[in-house]
Amino acid sequence: MTPRHEPTWRRYLRVWRGNPREDVAEEVQFHLETEIEELAASGLSPAEARARALAQFGDVGQAITECIASDHRRLRRYRWTQFQDTIRHEVKYILRGFTRRPSFTATVIATLALGVGANAAVFSIVDRVFLRPPAEVQEPSQLRRLYLLRGSPPNTRSRFGLPQAHAIAAQLGARFPTTIYDGGDRTRIELAGNTPRIVNADWVTPNFFNVLGVRVVAGRDFEDADLRFGEASTSLIISWDFWQREFAGDRSVIGKSVRVRGQPMTIVGVAPRGFRGIDVDAADIWVPLAGSRRVTPGARAPSYEDRGTSAWQLVPRR
Amino acid sequence: MATPIELLQGTLDVLVMKALSWGPQHGHAVSRLIRATTKGTFDVRDGSLYTSLHRLEERGWVDSEWGHSDKGKRAKFYVPTARGRQQLRNESASWRRYADAVSLMLSATEAPA
What we know:
Chain A is an alpha+beta fold.
């Protein structure tokens, strides 16, 4: 009563294509046929033999269902184990190849690392510019950026000179409140008794926070009076992060004096947590633009008069 | 012949393992072996016997493969695995202790002093 062995390849075929439903049906059929034959051989009529075999078997449907369920569980586990073995084997093989060719391996790893790094860097910019609206800005979909189209055909987008920007903002009027700003200037700032810091400064019209819908969390927003053409600005708003970093979140920071590019200024407000301007470069401080880039001790001419500078951005709210 | 006794849960598995320890068998042969060896004492439905065989295979105590019966029909043969053999040894031992204890108690003639 030893089973005649089937070829090995058939066993693999069976394991992978194992069909519990067919297998169990065939097994039970074999059992019943054999039993009926034996009973008939012992003298029972075919009908009696059949009835006896079935009675002896019990609930055929239930037995088949349980066997199939059991086989399914077993096959699933078996395939999972096989899969894990395959993976383990492949990984081992690959790692062994790596140790045999270290310079090749180093090149591959460096290439992948650079690729991943570059992707992450680009994505973080894309994320900030296109995917995620700047934090704390209200209804960002109502905001627009205006550009000047140059060339023929017009294919170059450029920014505005400050007088031009002011003229356009004035024409847009109260119907489309418009802020003018230039962001991301590396700027030297001196805090009382501290070493100077280099920070990112945004130069803005006083309505900057108002147009964006951003509310300061301490002190006050800029007022029109903060914009003084022909003179240096004297007020600035700092970011939450800068406030925490340099002043440990101390509320008495409002009214403190600092020097921005050598010019004495007063901290009037703190921007809400998370708000870092609306450019890729995160801003640390905001200064009214009257005393913009040309603010140096003794230099009275603000860039308002500087028609040559086309660095200003226009952001109207629809 | 006395009325067949219903098998306790789990006992069938041991009987099946024992029947398979004599060599690869298909289900029908296992049924015949158990019935013949126990002189028909147990009321084992063949359905539960197959459920037991598949359960044992799921547990990894037996392996199965398709072969051919004496009469040349395709049949599924079961063979105990190494783990299955070990399990059978363990279970046989505890079954013997169990049976001895029960028979000791039942054949006692007076309460121990």
